[in-house]
Specification:
Keywords: Membrane, Signal, Transmembrane, Transmembrane helix. With 192 residues, the protein is of the alpha+beta class. The chain is built from one helix and eleven strands. Strands 1-2-3-4-9 form a five-stranded antiparallel β-sheet, with no helix packed on it. Strands 7-6-10-11 form a four-stranded antiparallel β-sheet, with no helix packed on it. A two-stranded antiparallel ribbon has the order 5-8.
Length: 192
């Protein structure tokens, strides 16, 4: 059965259309706002977790100081020098530099460590910590060589690294690695 109003637009129909259009405008505004805010929040969080926290503002990091970067805590415990033994002789004009370091994972993600991520900087000449030192008695002078491995949340490792550098120079320990997001991470410690 057909009504007299079939096919004829009424005033009630005209009033519904602006409300529907208004609802779509608000939906679009909300979606755009979410699209702008969420990436900015993610970027801000990433920037805050990649910052270096030092014990003191603008302080030169040196032996005894500590640095936390990307959830990993680094502390240089000691630096010792050795001019060689009858079994282990450094290159002419060099001495052995023995650096003892503690690395602790204060973050939630597992992190890797490796002594080859550290370099001994002697006036710009950066060399690996790849030396071993045997005493005059034929025994190792350093028994706690830092190797490589992974640290779970709360994990901690302490070990020593041995390298060679020119006698009388200012030495630096330079850590260079990558975060889990493949961003380069560098820390420099003054050793003397």
């Amino acid at each position: 059965m057909m009504s007299l109003n079939d096919g004829i637009e009424t005033n009630q129909d005209k009033k519904k259309n602006p409300i529907l259009k208004f609802w779509w405008v608000w939906s679009i505004i909300i979606l755009v706002a979410i699209g702008i805010l969420v990436p900015n929040l993610i970027i801000q969080k990433a920037m805050s977790t990649n910052s270096v926290t030092q014990t003191g503002k603008n302080k030169i990091v040196k032996v005894g100081d500590s640095v936390t970067q990307n959830g990993v805590h680094y502390q240089i415990n000691s630096v010792k020098y050795n001019t060689g033994t009858k079994y282990s002789k450094p290159d002419d004009g060099n001495q052995y530099v023995i650096v003892n370091i503690t690395i602790e994972n204060k973050g939630k993600d597992t992190v890797s460590y490796n002594r080859y991520n550290f370099k001994l900087d002697d006036a710009g000449n950066q060399t690996s910590f790849s030396d071993y030192l045997t005493g005059d008695d034929g025994k190792k002078v350093v028994n706690d060589i830092l190797g490589s491995g992974d640290l779970a949340e709360g994990g901690k490792v302490t070990g020593s690294m041995i390298g060679q550098a020119k006698i009388g120079e200012k030495y630096k320990l330079v850590y260079s690695g990558y975060t889990k997001n493949y961003k380069k991470s560098t820390i420099t410690f003054n050793l003397n």
